[in-house]
């Protein structure tokens, strides 16, 4: 065999082994329990369009200021024209919603979704900024797009939620339009959506019945506490939707029993103390229950990644051996 060919094979084989060794050392870095911080508490505010979500968040900011709590505000709505509050981190400073619509030839909803997707690709930087200020903060208040499904059912929404939940106690607040929910059908629609968010995010959920200055939320608490009272409110309605809502009231009874509900008013500020008490209790629940579930899912994911990398490494070794054998036969 030509000495030059032999030397080339040896160099190739050496480089192959180096590549394999380098790949062996690769590991996926995930947030561990040692990196987890008990403060600040992340409050992600979601709600149907028109529920008063942004006004409610503005009231939360005012309350934290008045109570000497240290808050940090994050706006994730790229399409909002103006905000009644100042945001410490604003998606509009990073992603230009109208430019995204023009560039990708999208409609309003597609533009919001794509803007959120683009922002989510760099969300680790947002988490890093908050981590650096963690000791100086009590709450991080997060406003989401008015189109609720864009955040709750999108990949970017899941990325953002999980990024927060893996590092800080994270609570989802579902804002309900109380006057509109006096209709049993509308009330049931809201409860179904809240239930779906709870099981989608696997995070503690607080129901905030907003606009109690217009309509008292006691009727909602009664409907949640006693399904027979809710069924009585449906008696005058013989439509299919009423029959469905009647059946769902029984199915959601367990959901009602394990959820925290408070009445609030974004205008008058009523119920803010009760709301933050519910948030603190939910944060304790997060540490006791949800954090353990998160760690379990993280361990399962790491094990899956480890097995996948092992299979890829074995395949790579075989490919390298075949290449070396082929070179030797030449």
Automatic annotation (TrEMBL):
Enzyme class: hydrolase
CDD domains registered for this protein in UniProt: GPN1
Main location: cytoplasm
Coiled coil: 287-314
Alphabetically ordered keywords of this record: Coiled coil, Cytoplasm, GTP-binding, Hydrolase, Nucleotide-binding
Record SUPFAM superfamilies: P-loop containing nucleoside triphosphate hydrolases
Localisation per UniProt entry: Cytoplasm; Nucleus
Transmembrane segments: none
EC id: 3.6.5.-
Superkingdom of source: Eukaryota
Molecular function terms from GO: GTP binding; GTPase activity
InterPro entries: Gpn (IPR004130), Gpn1/Npa3/XAB1 (IPR030230), P-loop_NTPase (IPR027417)
An annotated GO cellular component: nucleus
The keyword Cytoplasm is assigned to this record: yes
One Pfam family named in its UniProt record: ATP_bind_1
Function: Small GTPase required for proper nuclear import of RNA polymerase II (RNAPII). May act at an RNAP assembly step prior to nuclear import.
Assigned protein family: Belongs to the GPN-loop GTPase family.
Subunit description: Binds to RNA polymerase II.
Protein name: GPN-loop GTPase
Organism of derivation: Thlaspi arvense (Field penny-cress)
